[in-house]
């Protein structure tokens, strides 16, 4: 990894973690939203880490499930969030050794898209509550 790419990765990680901390400040006083945002802090840190390990998805799924149970009331939204989480998990399994070395990057990209989508969804849902 080049020095510039290394610096960009660190900058992305710091920016994403600071955004989650800003979201925590925005939701202070709303217990469910605050707990959900707090659950996303380690997810964001590990998801944007320069070195990624497939085992991180175990923590991610637990954090997403806990946060979603606090924030996502409707079945339709639960199903869509579960689709993003399930898609990220399936793609994670396909990275190695299931998919041939030629297509690992497709599964990896799908995993990161699903993981970022689920995480962003939860943070946005915490900051912007569902209409009553």
The secondary structure category is mainly alpha
Give the beta-strand count.
Answer: 0
The end-to-end span amounts to: 48 Å
Tell me the major beta sheet. Answer: none
In helices, the fraction of residues equals: over 70%
Features:
132 residues, mainly alpha, 0% strand
Please provide a written account of the structure:
This protein is flat. The protein starts with a helix and ends in a 5-residue tail after the last helix. It is mostly helical and 132 residues long. It is 80% helix and 0% strand. The chain has one domain.
Short account of what is shown:
This protein is mainly α and 132 residues long. 80% of the residues lie in helices and 0% in strands. The chain is flat, with a radius of gyration of 15 Å.
Strand and helix layout:
Layout: H1 3-26, H2 31-47, H3 56-71, H4 75-98, H5 104-127
């Amino acid at each position: 990894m080049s020095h510039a790419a290394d610096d960009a990765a660190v900058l992305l990680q710091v920016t994403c973690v600071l955004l989650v901390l800003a979201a925590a400040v925005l939701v202070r006083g709303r217990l469910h939203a605050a707990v959900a945002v707090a659950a996303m802090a380690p997810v964001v840190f590990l998801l944007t880490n320069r070195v990624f390990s497939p085992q991180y998805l175990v923590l991610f799924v637990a954090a997403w499930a806990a946060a979603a149970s606090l924030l996502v009331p409707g079945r339709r939204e639960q199903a869509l969030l579960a689709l993003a989480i399930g898609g990220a998990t399936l793609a994670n399994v396909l990275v190695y050794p299931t998919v041939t070395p030629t297509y690992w990057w497709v599964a990896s990209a799908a995993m990161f898209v699903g993981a970022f989508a689920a995480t962003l969804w939860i943070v946005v849902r915490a900051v912007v509550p569902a209409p009553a």
